[in-house]
Amino acid sequence: MIDKVLDFLSDKKYHEAKQIIKNMNAVDVAEVFEELRENSERDISLKLFRLMPKELAAESFAYMDSDTQQGIIEAISDNELKYILDDMYLDDFVDMVEEMPANVVMRVLKNASQRNRALINQYLQYPDDSAGSLMTNEYVYFKSRLTVSQAFNVIRKTGVDKETIYTCYVIDSERHLKGVVTVKDLLLADPDTTVGNIMSTNVIYAHTLDDKEEVAKVFSRYDMLSLPVVDKEDRLVGIITIDDAVDVMQEENTEDFEKMAGMVPSEDTYLKTSVFKLARNRIIWLVILMLSAMITGSMMEQYEAAISALPLLVSFIPMLMGTGGNCGSQASTIIIRGMALDEIELSDFFKVWFKEIRVALLCSVVLSLVNFFRIWIQYQDLGVAVTVSLTLIATVCIAKSLGCILPMLAKKLHLDPAIMASPMITTLTDAASILVFFNIAINLLGSRL
Amino acid sequence: MIDKVLDFLSDKKYHEAKQIIKNMNAVDVAEVFEELRENSERDISLKLFRLMPKELAAESFAYMDSDTQQGIIEAISDNELKYILDDMYLDDFVDMVEEMPANVVMRVLKNASQRNRALINQYLQYPDDSAGSLMTNEYVYFKSRLTVSQAFNVIRKTGVDKETIYTCYVIDSERHLKGVVTVKDLLLADPDTTVGNIMSTNVIYAHTLDDKEEVAKVFSRYDMLSLPVVDKEDRLVGIITIDDAVDVMQEENTEDFEKMAGMVPSEDTYLKTSVFKLARNRIIWLVILMLSAMITGSMMEQYEAAISALPLLVSFIPMLMGTGGNCGSQASTIIIRGMALDEIELSDFFKVWFKEIRVALLCSVVLSLVNFFRIWIQYQDLGVAVTVSLTLIATVCIAKSLGCILPMLAKKLHLDPAIMASPMITTLTDAASILVFFNIAINLLGSRL
Questions:
Q1: What ipTM does the predicted assembly reach?
Q2: Which of B332, B388, B319, B318 has the alpha carbon at shortest distance from B360?
Q3: What DSSP designation does A174 have?
Q4: Which of A55, B60, B90, B111 has its CA 20 to 30 A from that of A13?
Q5: Which residue in A has a C-alpha nearest to residue B160's C-alpha?
Q6: Among B308, B363, B434, whose Cβ lies nearest the Cβ of A282?
Q7: Which residues of B touch A150 (CB under 8 A)?
Q8: What domains sit in chain A, N to C, each tagged with a CATH number?
Q9: Segment B153-166, tens digit of pLDDT
Q10: What's the pLDDT tens digit per position in A187-197?
């Protein structure tokens, strides 16, 4: 559908494009504008924006990425801008303002209503990773002495502008959060009973400064659609809706993927991040890990005599290092992920370690047997076959142990377990496997080295 | 709060425990039962279950893990079981039945209502990864000729049992999905207008056999709370709610983490998976990657003369292999994740590759300089310093290229890009770096080898 609209537009068939777009979802319409911006079709974009029904134009505007929004803001008149801004939910508004350059922000704020201007200034002050930064002020609230039918009147009167009306919040005269009542409760209740009689007082809520990752976890634990947010004095100041919580979950997952591959998480999507920034995000860990690998390399210098005498030994190093690294990252990945989902607690430490050791023994015996027979058959060298097989068992056990100990240790020290992932574990395992390998070799094959 | 209840229970202070539990969220109550099961407190568990208000007992039952549910089913009477089963949402019911051993399933089905029994049999037939497997039949539907006030009567009459009532579905006499109307629309409409007048006909829906990962993406793209599901004849057969879509998202993320660390995804949480199963999930990739690393090792045999002559060369191998592996996994991780989130498309291939090459050049120049000066200062050996530095630049460029080409190639071939992650890329990069290293060494240092 999106492609069809773009085709009509490039053929200047505006009427046909309008007919399709009228029935499209605002999210898809936003994508049309993003495509037009990528192809630098500013004029077509503006023309299309003005062709569309006003409400759809405003709704799709909220879904566009910030570059596309900026392009449109710069093209439209102050009156058009006012209409869009009045229609925007406050959380989308705040997100947009955060991404814009100063001159655009000035123009946007000049055209915002005074009330919105004040609220945006307040909302912009919450730290980036806090519950406050996710909040919106579009929610329905009333006092507990209202009857159910009065409550419905409040919803009808104010509801059209509210992001979600299905959970309503009950407050006292100082805006302290007293209870919640869902529209379902209200629909199923006697119209003359008071809200106080049917509200649930066992309210799950967040504080403005709570970590947004924890907030997302509350949503998925309790299957909620929206979560009220209170300030230090327990007064209701906003709500967070599930769509924003889902976005946080996905962002946190992406951050974990990035950290676990030895990168500093980036703020933007890949294609929008500059080469210089990408390189900067990656170089830090590359240098740290390279320096550690240099130490491993230096350790090998003391075995130069052995290497000269039996250079065949060196040909097993890639296999030993590779297998050790793979085993370590398997363990660390599964344990970091388990802790992120609260499926593994610190108190499970010994259970986890014992499990990993048994898994390591099972895996390493299989791997060792494959190696033993391969070396025996290919080189007819029993000594080397035994050396490599024993090293493999030791390496796998060390790798699996490090892979479970280090992430849990990091958590214990209140560090992010994700930094103890594959790259770090691999580097440590490399050092261990080389030490073990040459020491076993010197002991078993001493006479030949 | 959970700990307090457990303390009261172990002191046999049932009254106090009951007072706290009465005001607890069903999710937290379920956790109390899970803790009791882990400590094998079957009697206390049963006693507590019978102490609780019936509705809370039934609600918390739905949130328990399947082992805990099974323990309770085995302890309670048929009448108690009937009450719980009648209260359960159909999707939770189906999930539960899927996890139980046959004898428990028999007893559960015997105590289910006839209607539920038939529906469960139907729902169990959808494949595990399909939209159908996530469906529930608890939704509100009516015909388009109803007035708004009649619609509210339908909601009031049937709504108490429905998982979500906020989006209502409009069907024709053959159950074809004709439109949706939200409670918000109904509340804000004239009570005498018909549903057909205010419904939205531009409905986003899924088919029963759609992949559940795609369904989860639809939820997050369109910020939906529930999604209708139709069968092959476009008849409405169920809905999926956002809580289940969020669970799918998190499962898919966990699967990607596991695959990207070279593991076969496991169906259960870590602590519940047996050592044997864990080992089985991990050994396949370990063996494949070990065999590949053996080939790399064998390639080194042809350089045995060089190694004997200048064993110092070997000490750079861990650093070269490690850095290559790290660079490759950085690239592959960011690209696999970008494709999973639809932020990177196959058509972006050249843009991505060109970006990675530039990032590789920036990173490798920094890494090479560090190495060059370190080797020059430590060994005063210009030839070796140049050899290592050049190898590093080549290795990083190869690693970053493989890290972007292979996942995108996998996607092009309709394979899961996640298998082209760190372990695979690292193994390939290892081979490349060793080949490059010895070839540059032989060319530059030929006279000394």
A1: 0.85
A2: B332
A3: T
A4: A55
A5: A188
A6: B363
A7: none
A8: 2-125 (1.25.60.10), 141-241 (3.10.580.10), 270-448 (1.10.357.20)
A9: 998 888 766 778 88
A10: 889 999 999 99
